Amino acid sequence: MSLRVTVVGVGMVGERIISILRERSFPMEWPPRVCATRERTEMLDGEKFHVEKTGENCFRNADIVFFAGKEGAKGASIQWGAKAQEAGAICVDNGSDFRLDAKIPLVIPEVNPEAIRPQTRFIASPNCSTIQLVMVLHPLHQAARIHRVVVSTYQSVSGWGVKAHEELLSQMPQALKSLDNIGFDPLVLARPIAFNYLPHIDKFTENGYTKEEMKMVLETQKIMGNESIKISATTVRVPVLVGHGESINIETKSKLSPAEARQILSNSPGIAVLDELNKDNPRHDPLERTYPDAFNIRKPQYRDMVLVGRIREDPTIENGLNLWCVADNLRKGAALNVVQIGELLIKRGIVRP
Ligand SMILES: NC(=O)c1ccc[n+]([C@@H]2O[C@H](COP(=O)([O-])OP(=O)(O)OC[C@H]3O[C@@H](n4cnc5c(N)ncnc54)[C@H](OP(=O)(O)O)[C@@H]3O)[C@@H](O)[C@H]2O)c1
Fold first, then answer.
1. What pLDDT does residue 93 have?
2. Which of 103, 102, 67 minimizes the C-alpha distance to 84?
3. Which of 18, 20, 218, 316 has the smallest CB count inside 10 Å?
4. Are residues 162 and 287 in the same domain?
């Protein structure tokens, strides 16, 4: 017997969930049931799908429901999460609505699989920028105890969803002609994003930080089970289609050299270190090193990895490291993480194919 899977939401993340379920031969009946705000036929990952309007029908007989709809009162998991559980399904949610709920595990399988208990029926997947940060912090914390992190992000437009992806694509031809009067939808991104950068992701909060910045702080502390780790975040939207970059400054209790950090991260699951001498570079720079960028994650060997480079000592503090990390926000930052959670549920016998 194989599992019955429902995917709610067929935008940037929902479509990736469908392709990753197929790529990883998830033990399920094919096709999954797919649901969104309205019924239609749609090509998803190269296959024609009947998309249902989300309703109780979508959860009947489902073993696992992957939520990739929008958040808030009219969002998918708030509207339908309880109904899916009543119907007997285990829910795995990409959205932020339940991430900080003390009763709901917030899980990155490589980091805190133990947060899922045999009786767990609803699991939250962290924010995309949090996932790649914690993937890097966790092994370094185990080795040298982190007590402070300063992170600045360079986040692609697809992190907002399909509408922001379309905004950048539609603004580029206009921007190439003139940077004046670029048409944009202020309800998607507050200003034009073509040839620009916006330190404004999600809403502002009373303390002056944005919700995206506070997600990085609070989610990281919850996943790492350590509220004493101090985290300061600045999150910035950049005109990249897919792939988030993060500049991370880390202060540890005990000393960790860049070479030790490279070694630890190279041996950590889901991480690839791209940080070695780049000999024979056309600039004849004998000290130039390799590093990850948004194009690396297009390569099959890297698309599911968190890539780390530019690992160096921060000489301005006692035990400090600087590094740069890149990951596909749609895959490890969202769809891959939830499918891995599904695999974990099977491995633990919490759902049985
Ligand atoms: N994009 C990322 O990098 C990323 C990373 C981590 C987490 N997430 C989270 O993943 C979720 C999906 O993000 P996305 O980027 O895929 O968004 P998206 O491209 O805007 O797609 C949203 C999808 O959800 C459907 N939807 C919205 N409200 C719904 C509701 N109440 N009931 C059923 N379906 C509903 C939409 O239906 P229609 O197609 O009918 O409009 C659409 O298919 C969000 O919660 C987001 O915060 C995203």
1. 98
2. 67
3. 316
4. yes
Tell me: do 91 and 135 sit in the same domain. Answer: no
Q: Tell me: do 186 and 112 sit in the same domain.
A: no
* Domain enclosing residue 26, as ranges: 5-126+334-347
- Among the options 128, 138, 165, 325, which is catalytic? 128
Atom 12 of ligand 1: nearest residue by CA position: 68
Catalytic residue from among 138, 141, 165, 244: 244
pLDDT tens digits, one per residue of 34-50: 999 999 999 999 999 99
Residues 118 and 199 reside in one and the same domain: no
User: Measured between alpha carbons, how far is 307 from 276 in angstroms, rounded to an integer?
Assistant: 13
pLDDT at residue 1 in the model: 66
Task: Determine the distance separating the centroid of ligand 1 and the alpha carbon of 267, expressed in angstroms.
Answer: 34
Whether residue 258 is predicted with pLDDT greater than 80 in this model: the reply is: yes
Query: Tell me, what CATH number does 188's domain have?
Result: 3.30.360.10
Q: What is the mean pLDDT of residues 239-258?
A: 98
267-290, pLDDT tens digit by residue? 999 999 999 999 999 999 999 999
Instruction: Report pLDDT for 74.
Output: 86
Provide the whole-model pTM: 0.98
In the prediction, which pLDDT does 228 show?
87
The answer on pLDDT for 92 being more than 80 is yes
Q: How many domains is the chain built from?
A: 2
- Interval between CA 334 and ligand 1 midpoint (Å): 11
In a shared domain, residues 135 and 262: yes
Indicate if 122 and 135 belong to the same structural domain: no
- Is 154 a domain residue? yes
Instruction: Give pLDDT tens digits for 315-330.
Output: 999 999 999 999 999 9
Q: Is 325 one of the annotated active-site residues of the chain?
A: no
Mutate to test the pocket of ligand 1, among 7, 12, 129, 165 (most ligand atoms within 8 A of CB): 12
Q: Give catalytic status of residue 91 as yes or no.
A: no
Mark whether 22 and 169 lie in a shared domain: no
Q: Is 18 in the pocket of ligand 1 (CB under 6 A)?
A: no
